[in-house]
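Reopening: Small ribosomal subunit biogenesis GTPase RsgA still failing for me.
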Amino acid sequence: MSERIPGQVVAAHGRQYMVELAGGETLLCFPRGKKSDIACGDRVEISRPAKDQGAIEAITPRSSLLYRSNEYRQKLIAANVSQVLIVVATEPGFSFELVCRTLVATQDQGVAARIILNKCDLADKIAPARQALAPFVALGVPVLELSALHGAEALRPLLAGHTSLLVGQSGMGKSTLVNALIPEARAATREISEALDSGKHTTTHARLYHLDPAKPEAGDLIDSPGLQDFGLQHLSRSDIEHAFAELAPHLGQCRFRDCRHDREPDCALRSALEAGQIDPRRWAVFRTLYQGASS
Ligand SMILES: Nc1nc2c(ncn2[C@@H]2O[C@H](COP(=O)(O)OP(=O)(O)OP(=O)(O)O)[C@@H](O)[C@H]2O)c(=O)[nH]1
Ligand SMILES: [Zn+2]
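Support: Ran it again with your exact input. Result attached.
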């Protein structure tokens, strides 16, 4: 048996992975066997049958796994993340539901979340954006306002000591933000794309960057492709109830143990909604997710 070498997946694209080894060398790797449930951020053990190619033999247990799913399949986003940064912008408008769904996924994985409100140079658009974000602020989700076009230094201290995942809809300015934080990102991405795609121009992969290669404590940043939806088919009704923090004081208080929080009498959740203790926009997303959950 050949020697097992530890490494970390720094780029994932289909069944191809770039794995960083101790010392910073990166190696193109393929998973052993048919399965490829490996994500950017995964710590792995590889074997090296050839100098310029590796085989992923094992995945080290993860501290967290962010993924999306529908009825048919699941899509891994990133592993071993300690905080998720949800990028929204003053313009164009962002999806309230997508932010809620991302927060559900982070809450489920016990990962911290922050919202970054980008494009705050567009001064007249800030007030409506703040209003749209108010329900998240009320929940205690920190919001950082910045303008990636003019720099992202305010964010840097919040990244120290973390592996942070950047997620957001297309057009919110995620790439601008990555380039502001990591000026060499564009070149690194091009290099990786060439290795992974052999010339094809797809940018569908997640990518891990070291904020300061000389200082591991500066943190790592994983950039992921723009999100259009965030399917959470893998979560049960109970998972969803527990992922909406504002419901916590009311869970278990309904008259019926198997209350579906719909039209049942003496539903504690509906009472809290009617008493104004639960934001109606959050409630609407909760209902959508709860009704779609399998059990
Ligand atoms: N006014 C303003 N525009 C910005 C800012 N940041 C990004 N933009 C612009 O917003 C547009 C989208 O930015 P990108 O960085 O490409 O957005 P993205 O989220 O990476 O989008 P995709 O690449 O489609 O996933 C570009 O025209 C940027 O120049 C900002 O802070 N202020
Ligand atoms: Zn109920």
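The chain has three domains: 5-59, 65-223, 237-292. If you still see a failure, please send the error message rather than a screenshot.
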